[in-house]
Amino acid sequence: MTKVINKSKVAIALVGMFAMAGSATVAAQDVSTLQSEEAKIHESMKRSQSKIDSLFEQSQELLFEYRSVVDEYENLKVYNDHVARLVDDQNQTLASLQRQIDGIDETKQGVIPLMYKMIDSLEEFVKLDIPIHKERRMTRVQHLRDLMERSDVTTSEQFRQIIEAYQAEMDYGSGLIAYEGKLQLEGEEISVDFFHLGRVALLAQSLDLKNGWIYNKENDSWEALSDVYLGSLTKAIRMARKQTAPDLIELPIFAAERAE
C-alpha cells in the first residue's frame, strides 16, 4: 500500500514537473510573442511617424503655396485696380477727343470764312501800301488763295501760312532795308537800289549813284530826288546792308496828312 502511494507521488511529481516545464515553455513563447508584437508596434509607430512627418511637410508646403497665392492675388488685385483706373482715364480722354473731333466741323465753319477775309484784307493792304517788294507780296497773296483750294493741305497749315504772311508784312514796317530791283519810270525800266525806312519813306537810287527818286504815296508816283540827298541816300543804303556804321542821315519824308 505504501509502495503504491509512493508510486503515485512519483507520478504526480513527474506530472507536476511536466506541467511546470510546459508552463515555462508557454511563458517563453508568450514573451517572444510579446517582443515580436512590440517590435511590430514600434515599426508601425515609425511608419506612422514617418507618414505624419511627410504629411506635416506637405501641409507646410501647401501653406506656403497658399500664402503665395494669397500674396499674388493681392498684388493682382492692386494691379487690376490700377489698370481699371487707367482705363477709366483713357475712356474719359477718348470721350474728350471725340467731342473735339465732333466739333471740328463747327470750328472749320467759323475758321475758313475768317481765313478768306484775312487774305482779302492782306491783298487790299498790299495794294494801298507803299510798293515795297510789291510783286513778291502780291505773289504771296495769290499763293494763299491757291492754297485754300488744295484738298491735300490741312486747315491748320493754311492758317499757319496766312499768319506767316501777316508776320512778313509786319517786318516790312521796321528797320532800314535795302534791296536791288527794277524801277518802272516813264516807260523805262531802270536798275536801282531800293531803300525804305519802315513804311515812313521809300526811295530808289540808280546803280551809278547819279540819280535818286522818292515815292509819293499821295499821287502814287515816283518823284526825282534832289541832288542834295543823293549822298545821304547812298550812305543809308550802305547802312542797311551793314557796309558802314550807323549814323545820322538826312532824307526827305512826306508828311502824313492830318485826319479830318
Task: Please describe the structure with a list of short key phrases separated by commas or semicolons.
five-stranded antiparallel sheet, UCP028069, 260 residues, rod-shaped, alpha+beta, Energy transducer TonB, single chain
Which parts are unreliable, with pLDDT below 50 for 5 consecutive residues or more? 256-260
Terminal Cα span: 189 Å
- Described by its quaternary structure, the protein is single chain
Helical fraction equals 55-70%
Strand content: 5-15%
Run of helices and strands = HHHEEEEEH
DSSP summary: helix tally? 4
Radius of gyration: 59 Å
Question: Judging from the principal axes of the Cα atoms, what is the shape?
Answer: rod-shaped
Determine the mean pLDDT.
82
Describe what you observe in this structure.
This protein has 260 residues and is α+β, with helices and mostly antiparallel strands. Among the domains are: 90-172, no CATH class; 175-260, no CATH class. 66% of the residues lie in helices and 13% in strands. It contains four helices and five strands, in the order H-H-H-E-E-E-E-E-H. The chain has helices spanning 2-128, 134-148, 155-172, 230-240; strands at 176-185, 188-197, 201-206, 212-216, 221-224. Strands 1-2-3-4-5 form a five-stranded antiparallel β-sheet, covered by helices on one side. The longest helix has 127 residues, at 2-128. The model is unreliable at 256-260 (pLDDT under 50).
